[in-house]
Amino acid sequence: MSIPATHPFAFDPTYGMQLQELLAVEPPEEPDGFDAFWEARYQKALTVDPQPVLSRSEFTHPDWHVLDLVYLSTNSFRIGGWLLLPCEGQVRRGLVVGHGYGGRDRPDFDLPVKETALIFPCCRGLSLSSHPSISQNPSWHVLHDIDKRDSYIIGGCVEDIWLAVSTLLGLYPWLSGQIGYSGISFGGGVGAMAIAYDTRIDGGHLALPSFGDQPLRLKLPSVGSAQGVQDYQAEHGNVLETLRYYDAATAARRIEVPMLTAVALFDPAVAPPCQFAVANAIPKFNEIFILDAGHFDYPGSAEQEAALRDKIGQFFRVT
Q: What is a single Pfam family found in this protein's UniProt entry (predicted)?
């Protein structure tokens, strides 16, 4: 372990916690009606026809056919992204790949998977799914409709993932039961909520998952979107009336498929105890991969990322 010894932050991104303490973190108390809230949203999302439109992309790659993708999500929100199809072999597996809060400007061509159709959606308001009424700045995006539990933007982002699954199944119906999800940071937190209720997803990888233990996330000094929520809370009062229904750790307790979760001991953007709250809540079939740090460059990061990438390839391999 080589947790960064020096850093530019005015707080300690380990929050004074060692690995054993982090592994003991439990999810927060959950609000009444959590399941009913999400199950109703999922059932409604299943009624949406994504109407995907594919076109040739400006991106090219020797291993992948690259297509630009547009589909419709809930509330007719237009979602942009990419579809990658393998140049060799058949399409025997599907994978939806989420992104961090910085959005995404291109697909990831380096995922170590074969015979897999990959969808890289940009969640609503971000990158290819930008909208004039929604800020792309994470500190503002995370606040969009935060005062309205039923229309808070993070719920729409979860629905965007469900509609990505619907898109894959519409294009390749034989992938039923063979679709996974992989997401980092923002995409990790949204992914936990998506996987918890989408019975079509058969396994997932969450790295540095955000939105875990929202009461704790409001208290621990952070940078980025968490700080944006803390600043809003300081000015406007109780955001937990909304946020408790968008808690990735509470959702993770419902996950019943194999998972690979990567969590960090040091992270200024997503506090480690909040990450571990998600990883620890997953009831079974969960391998936890420990990174020295997240959202921060550190010695040995390349080696750790390579080892994690190998695990991701094994986890999503076609069987």
A: AXE1
What is the 8-class DSSP label of residue 134? B
The SS3 call for residue 102 is coil
Q: Nearest-CA neighbor of 125 among 117, 115, 133?
A: 133
CB neighbour list of residue 235: distance below 8 Å, 6 or more residues apart: none
Residue 202 and residue 92: Cα distance in Å, rounded?
Answer: 14
Domains and CATH numbers, the chain: 32-314 (3.40.50.1820)
Q: Which residues pair with 96 in a beta bridge?
A: 119, 181
Q: How far apart are CA 273 and CA 267, in angstroms?
A: 10
Tokens of 86: 């393998």
**Which residues have a Cβ under 8 Å from the Cβ of 234 and sit 6 or more positions away?**
none
Binding residue per annotation — 232? no
Q: Cite the beta strand spans of 105-151 per DSSP E.
A: 116-121
Q: Average pLDDT for consecutive 10-residue bins of the chain (319 residues)?
A: 84 97 97 98 98 98 98 98 97 98 97 97 98 97 97 98 98 98 98 98 98 98 96 93 98 98 98 98 94 94 95 94
- List residues bridging with 201 in a β-sheet: 179
The whole-model pTM stands at 0.97
